[in-house]
Amino acid sequence: MIKKQRAFLKWAGGKFKLIEALSAHLPQGDRLVEPFVGAGSVFLNTHYDRYLLCDINHDLINLYKIVQKEPEKYIKAAKALFVPEMNDKEAYYKIRIEFNATKDPFKRSVYFLYMNRHGFNGLCRYNRKGGFNVPFGSYKKPYFPEKEIRAFSEKAQNAEFHCIGYEQAIDMTKAGDVVYCDPPYAPLSSTASFTTYVGSGFSLDDQALLARHARHTAIERGIPVLISNHDIPLTRELYHGARFDTIQVQRNISQKGSGRKKVDELMALYDDSYHSEND
């Protein structure tokens, strides 16, 4: 069995556990385009010649560009913060204040990884003014992902990174591309809108617009688009006309083990066969 490559960031909704099942649904092509790259587990565990990796989180894309170009300089600077005296509430909040105050891309990239590993649950969350506001996580000994950073950097030599929205990312596609969309998931219930990772979140309108964009890209331009989301009546309605498949996943919805129930993941594929089947 091929050993899977872990991402160097913790990420809510990361695809590491699903990668084998998910890969089986990805069409073949020359380049994989990911409009919601997140921690990059799909990028790290697939084998396309090239990658176009996008996200609207400026700090994330900035970090990836730095790791791509200067891995050793980055590792040295980031590692210096993974020491016992920095695994402390006061130290964490001091770094968070500095992160929110600085515009320096390198400093922000170093602090971003520190907060990702020392903050609560590896969350990435900003307030309305754009300030990072995840509380301290109180972990015994946060792991410094040196091997994972090097692996990411090596693989990133075949990737391009852009801080843009999903529409622009999909518009950058060309013949031979395959698109994989992993948007913030539709809420399982009206109260569970835990999708506000960046800025104002991803509304149901956004979900519908993404579906429409995917459909048009497949029909009019012949570029296949795969979207993953919760398998619920709402998403099946949103992605009407796509080819559906489901994969099972263990989701950590509640702190108690008993509350961790399986929620199927929907794989919705739009490709050229969409047109003929849906005329």
TrEMBL record:
Coiled coil: none
Keywords (A to Z) from UniProt: Methyltransferase, S-adenosyl-L-methionine, Transferase
Database matches in PROSITE patterns: N6_MTASE (PS00092)
Reactions performed catalytically: a 2'-deoxyadenosine in DNA + S-adenosyl-L-methionine = an N(6)-methyl-2'-deoxyadenosine in DNA + S-adenosyl-L-homocysteine + H(+)
Keyword S-adenosyl-L-methionine set for record: yes
Keyword Cytoplasm: no
EC number: 2.1.1.72
Pfam families: MethyltransfD12
InterPro entries listed in its UniProt record: Ade_MeTrfase_dom_2, DNA_methylase_N6_adenine_CS, M_m6A_EcoRV, MeTrfase_D12, SAM-dependent_MTases_sf
NCBIfam families in UniProt: dam
Family statement drawn from the similarity comment of this UniProt entry: Belongs to the N(4)/N(6)-methyltransferase family.
Protein name as it appears in the record: Site-specific DNA-methyltransferase (adenine-specific)
Organism whose genome encodes this protein: Shewanella sairae
